[in-house]
Request: fold
Amino acid sequence: MSETTLADPLDTSWMVEGACLNEDPDLFWVDPKRDNPDIRAMKTEAAKKVCKSCPVRFPCLVWGLLDATGDHWSILGATTHRERQAIRRKVGWS
Reply:
């Protein structure tokens, strides 16, 4: 695994090491308009399981906390958008 740094938190070169690269991207996109609650819960749990074994989980989480994607439905760094909002509030980034 390459060294992770926060020198440039928007640098996405770490993404090539993501465990999610071998998964269906739709797994990490939980859409409340398209997916019923049971499907959302199943996809969220499965995506988080992949994330938890990922060697680049930390930079992915930082990227998500910075809201670099601008999307609100992705699982990033094993967190949902709401979980990232709560972290932002807790550390005073809201």
User: Anything to note?
Assistant: The longest helix spans residues 37-52. DSSP finds three helices and no strands in the chain. The chain has one domain: 19-90.
